[in-house]
Write a structure and sequence with these properties.
Shape: rod-shaped
Number of strands: 17
Strand content: over 45%
Order of helices and strands: EEEEEEEEEEEEEEEEE
Helix content: under 10%
Largest sheet: 5 strands, mixed
Distance between the termini: 98 Å
Length: 174
């Protein structure tokens, strides 16, 4: 007779520098039975026998991940290349201004590999989001301190966030 015939497969979440990558078993069995062994090789001298393991890579790059599944001694193998992306570093410059003047925000964000292609500005008190522009200008209503956030996203989908406090000074009395 014919025994169980496993077919190895897995999905994974794309990873960014310093983040956990999750692997999800998607293997199937033809001919009855259920998978009783999983053996992941993450391509960086680390491995796991969990069905749905998490793994953090020490450095960016491409890794060849192999999964071997078994059913009653019958095995199947699949390999996929996974990519651990470079994360950008969010940063921006601004000058504090007097009430009634616009604050000019200039992204000085950096990335060591790839490109930053999205900038999301969160301008407190107005919830204005500006996508796709590395500069923003905004007039805040009234003197005080306002929290400004910037989220940058790279072409590989990795993000970083920075928040700074902008001070709006009262208009000088003449």
């Amino acid at each position: 007779g014919t025994g169980p015939n496993p077919s190895a497969d897995f999905n994974y979440t794309a990873g960014c520098e310093g983040q956990v990558m999750s692997f999800e078993d998607r293997s199937t069995v033809n001919g009855g039975g259920s998978i009783d062994s999983w053996d992941y090789d993450f391509g960086d001298a680390n491995s796991s026998t969990n069905q749905n393991p998490d793994h953090t890579y020490a450095s960016v790059g491409n890794y060849n991940v192999q999964l071997i599944v078994g059913v009653d001694g019958c095995k199947d193998t699949i390999s996929k290349q996974v990519s651990m992306g470079v994360s950008p570093v969010a940063d921006f410059d601004f000058s504090n201004v007097c009430d009634g003047e616009d604050v000019n925000l200039v992204s000085t964000s950096t990335i060591t590999s790839g490109t930053i292609n999205k900038w999301y500005w969160d301008l407190s008190g107005s919830s204005v989001y500006v996508e796709g522009n590395n500069n923003a200008s905004h007039g805040f209503s009234g003197a005080g301190e306002y929290l400004v956030g910037l989220v940058v996203e790279s072409d590989n989908g990795c993000t970083d966030t920075l928040s700074e406090t902008v001070t709006i000074y009262p208009e000088p009395v003449v």
